[in-house]
């Protein structure tokens, strides 16, 4: 990789491979004392109305869903949990999941392996550098370097793990840890979608069957946010919503996640052994807008490295995602979104800058 000064960002493409300066390597340069100009993020005029940042309101707390009551509770407990799940999806598009079935040791091992990957030598990670959104393993920086007007203070690793499992060869133990973690989170995601289907008044397996989850897309999306010399000027990742149905997130104990709720950015404190669940774009489409995919962003710190690990639960790539016909009524509830193949939606996402719900807006009627 060609050497670069800390204030520069270089990119070399060869056979669809991209060589770049990672944020991690940038922060390890002794010459870095201030934020390089290419990383200075300014809020655009459309976002100024949402620049209030606050802690969760005690009268409107972040919803908490007890997974054990969904799968093991009495009929009354399960019915109440499904009701609470629907309310969280409708009012927040976001909730904390507690008492899930993924062991603490499995979560910790996965966090350790993700850090181990990012700590590999840059040349080893560069083997997975790519600009093609359909590549099964992609290492990169920012969001979409070819489109981004401002670079974001993050490095990422994205891996497709279902319907076909992929893994980098290094570090040793990554493949085994990822396989176990993804198998368990896939089960959690499918159970949550059953409860969501029922809350919508559909059969429990409706979303699983119509979204063809036997061949559904499951992805690991790991993000590294190293300490930033001037965090008030940078952004880890800007406001956006996710493709797919659900996004299951865990963090390493360092806060930085914010979700938009009722016009305010809410700081989400990292809670040990819980998952953070996001309603994603395709669930908004299936519900015909009853549930809203949540806008969220990552801010950075000058004190600690934050790592987030998201598991994307999504339809199969060839599934046409459209509003559930059972929810539609030509007069009272007409279709609010056009159908689109998941594969095409991902390509549309890749060809646009990361900007709020700009991609979802393209399929709205």
Structure description:
The structure is a single chain. This protein has one domain (35-361): B-lactam Antibiotic, Isopenicillin N Synthase, Chain (Jelly Rolls, Sandwich). Helices cover 27% and strands 22% of the residues. Strands 4-5-13-10-15-8-7-6 form an 8-stranded mixed sheet. A hairpin with a 2-residue loop joins β11 and β12. The model is unreliable at 1-19 and 45-49 (pLDDT under 50). It is of the alpha+beta class. The protein starts with 10 loop residues before the first strand and ends with a helix. Residues 1-10 have a biased composition (Basic and acidic residues). Residues 215-315 form the Fe2OG dioxygenase domain. Residues 11-44 have a biased composition (Polar residues).
Order of strands across the biggest sheet?
A: 4-5-13-10-15-8-7-6
Write the H/E string, N to C. Answer: EEHEEHHEHHEEHHEEEEEEHEEEEHH
**CATH class wording:** Mainly Beta
Radius of gyration: 20 Å
What proportion strand?
15-25%
> How many structural domains are formed by the residues?
1
| CATH homologous superfamily identity | B-lactam Antibiotic, Isopenicillin N Synthase, Chain
Instruction: Classify the helix fraction into a percent range.
Output: 25-40%
Question: How many DSSP helices?
Answer: 10
